[in-house]
Amino acid sequence: MTDRSRQHLATVVAAFAASLLLLFLAVPTIALVARGGAGGLRGLATDAELRDAIVLTVITATASTLIAVLLGTPLAWWLARRRFRGRALIDAVLDLPLLIPHPVAGIALLLVLSRGSPLGAALLAIGVRVVSTPLGIVAAMLFVSAPLYVSAAREAIARVDPRYEAVARTLGDTPWRAWRRVTLPLARRGLLSGAVVSWARASSEFGAIVILAYHPRVASVLSYDRLTSYGLREALPVAAALVLVALLPLVLLRALGRNPAPGAR
Amino acid sequence: MSVTLREVTVRQGSFTLERVSLSVPDAAYGVVLGAAGSGKTTLLETVAGIRAPASGTVQIAGGDVTALPAEARGVGMVYQHSLLFPHLGVAANVAYGAKSEAAVTDAVRRTGIDALLTRGVATLSGGEQQLVALARAIASEPRVLLLDEPFAALDPPRRTAMRRMTRALQRERAITVLHVTHDVNEAALLADVLAVLDSGRILQHGVATDLFAHPASGRVAELLGAENVIAGVASTAADGSVELRAGRLTVHALLPDGGAVAGPAHAVIGADEITLSRTAKETSARNSYAGSVIAMSGAGALVRVEIDVEGTPLVAVVTSGAARELALAAGVTVHLSFKATAVRIC
Description:
The complex is a heterodimer.
Chain A: H1 3-46, H2 48-81, H3 87-99, H4 102-113, H5 118-125, H6 134-158, H7 162-170, H8 175-203, H9 207-212, H10 219-230, H11 232-258
Helix pairs in contact in A: 1-2, 1-11, 2-6, 2-8, 3-6, 4-6, 6-8, 7-8, 8-11, 10-11
Chain B: E1 3-12, E2 15-24, E3 29-34, H1 40-48, E4 55-60, E5 63-64, E6 75-78, H2 90-95, H3 101-111, H4 126-139, E7 144-148, H5 156-173, E8 176-181, H6 184-190, E9 193-198, E10 201-207, H7 208-213, H8 218-223, E11 228-236, E12 242-246, E13 249-253, E14 263-269, E15 275-277, E16 287-297, E17 302-309, E18 312-319, H9 320-325, E19 333-338, E20 343-345
Parallel strand pairs in B: 3-8, 3-9, 6-7, 7-8
Antiparallel strand pairs in B: 1-2, 1-4, 4-5, 9-10, 11-12, 11-14, 12-13, 14-20, 15-19, 16-17, 16-19, 17-18
Helix pairs in contact in B: 3-4
């Protein structure tokens, strides 16, 4: 066999392997939308339980993402701009929710937020119930999705040359004003992208939510509920509707990725 | 507004700017000359307030600004890479830190960037970007202008034009400038006061012409562009002249103040002080040697000739016409001479 033939064969084998993987990834979702998409869309109009679950999913995922952005952006800036001891520990804390199984994350959250725990009891004492409430859903979503935002935001901020901030400071800006006028606009695309990924992760979460707040049911829990109670046919519209909702941030993410941010290194 | 650093130490990773002291008088053009990695940018950023010193003080106009944040120091900074804000257009960049519309108009007029105002910064050439960066800095009406190799990335004609314009601007507006560069020609052309920075330490600092005339050490002479810096052992002869022995070579020097020198020292001889001939001539010059041409370089009006003299390489500069007349080429024997008064001992 000549070198050229060998190269040709290697290309064919690689293309075949890649196609297999892509088909494996795409076909189940396409089949789901094909079989249940119309029912899902119809369900949004006619099935109040499904509509409520989707609305709850969107609201809680949005709340979780807003909290991740508000609390995670300063942390991301700190990690991107400062060198300090204990940084590895913070990295580990951020990686942990991504590494542990999500039901385990739910159990861990239950441990610290249930009424039997000091924190849960203290919250209950001031009238805040977490378990089996939308707040619990937000907590579970935040736990699994915030690290994704912090990671993306940290990278987006690190890509902005810190000397832009330095120049802005010499032009009269306070650190906060330099951040707002220079770093934030330059990192905006990366921060938005991180927020979208975080939202997508939150809206698709199941394992942690099902432990901490089975009720009220978000879309992922409802689809599981219908599958186990009524079978695949009833679960399909819910699952398909959830896929359609998840497609929205995916489209947004692709649109953001089309143009790189100016000034990114 | 004078700028003074007193015993300033800045630690940055494994690099340390070590007990730096220097002063640029009010409305003077100060230059810090140093090789890449010598700490020039760290020094400027410390004056700007972007880096905090571990010890020492920074003064502007006699006031201690060491604890003041960058935005309160009244400095303008221009980096080598203009660092124009890429999300803003040229006009917005220039107006970014301006206190008034008049300041913007004045900065635009002085830098001649009227035609660029409607452009996006990504469409500008390197030279145009530096002009806009300079306009942005001066529009903020700084007390002190800090320039970090601002012309290094420009082609020679633009570099020359920018140097002229910056110097004229500094004189007209009586701004104090602190400019760091690795370019000895730039330092010689611009500096009223000059500091030589090497590995985080100021080796010498003072009036620029004094530094070029009297480098404090062989290293300073090298950094100031001297071609011939010969390390040896100096002693004072009976006639009051100084002899420096470097291997088989002995160099005679006559110190202007008639002072005596003894011990390890460097002899510094300007390449243009050395006269070449193909035959030994009677000369009044105290230093006269025969040597062998090692290499020649230079395609313009001047030719740089490297000559081995008693095992020590010396560099002479002659016109290309003289090089042709002397039929200089690698391997030929030449006679070279220079006066004892042309030798500086440091």
